[in-house]
Amino acid sequence: MIYNEEFETLPREALEALQLKRLKQVVQRVYYTVGFYRRAFDQAGVQPENLKTLDDLKRFPFTGKQDLRENYPFGLFAVPMSSIVRLHASSGTTGRATVVGYTQRDIDTWSELMARCFAAAGLTKNDMIHNAYGYGLFTGGLGAHYGAERLGASVIPISGGNTKRQITILQDFGPTAICCTPSYALNLAEQGKAMGVDMRALKLRVGIFGAEPWSEEMRREIESALNLTALNIYGLSEIMGPGVSMECLEGRQGMHIAEDHFLVETINPDTGEVLPPGETGELVFTTITKEAFPLVRYRTRDISRLIPEPCRCGRTHHRMDRIMGRSDDMLIIRGVNVFPSQIEAVLVGIEGIEPHYQLIVDRIDNLDTIEVQVEVSDELFSNADEVKVLQNMERRIVKDIKDYLGISAKVKLVEPKSLQRFEGKATRVQDKRRI
Ligand code: AMP
Ligand code: ZN
Asked: Is the CB of 237 under 6 A from ligand 1?
């Protein structure tokens, strides 16, 4: 089913006319309401009036994660706080996290776009949706929740964690659909099996999985473990949250981008040059209807490719391929965004620790793990005849990482000068996950 037949099947020409009209408005609005954009446009020598065609967007400057950090927390909002009804923040990071705001109309749009996603997964008001995305500052839980309600489905706001209870509810309530990260889906399948539950016999028909990278292999694994159809959903807090793009049940290849609300470009991440549709590069989004937190040419760092060929479902919105990687070094550990530099920042603040470290990321029993190997100072090492001293230090680092980044890491202290040194760029991360 197509939730919003009119907009999701607009002929390209009409869609592009609508995009241009909306784009002109947003460029005008940010120039006159957000100091950051006025300075950025002036510096690049462009004015809102220079935007006459969609192609002219190329002349406007990019916005990056750093710009968001520098304007933390509310510097890029285009409306007064009295018009904001909801705040979210990008997962994992404390301190200078990315904070996003929504007006009531933004929430309405988001709810509709998520409802479109559920409909694209073949769901209707007769379905029951087990929503295991985390509720809170993370956009996943509430985003999916409002969309499920908009569709009229019955939503179970289970949030993340407490897996045993989730399995009991899956058995007792009999939801027909589930939303969570793909790794959590596998984890549920595994724990259910360990509890002696036949996870293939549940009523689940479809799963809507996203918020982290996954592969076709993993799709097959999930489908066979849970006996459902697994679909990919993509989004990011900065642009809205989940629901920016979604696979349709009929196509199951590439996610339709809600192009009546977001403009997408693919660029060469090194040169910033715009690539022709179909070529692999970094996705850049411009929001064309958002009120509270509009973004012009936001560099996502996510690598993918656009699929302009028509889809058999009848939607005219272009699709994007699954995310192939990131152009920066951001790790996603159990759905939490982590930059190696943040771990470094924690380590650097601890006495007795050297700034030589290595991060080993793996996926064990379908859960992401991160081990931080860090060198202790000569001094600490020579005084540490007592194992206790080292143990305390390890515990302290585990706690600091948990407090600052919200992730549980394993910490292994190693002898001074035992870790690899680098002559050029350091490669501190060993990502052993095969996804
Ligand atoms: P957040 O803003 O915390 O929700 O994180 C957004 C990031 O999660 C995106 O920029 C992507 O890197 C990643 N992400 C979200 N959905 C997917 C997906 N379906 N496949 C791969 N990565 C995803
Ligand atoms: Zn389709």
From this structure: yes
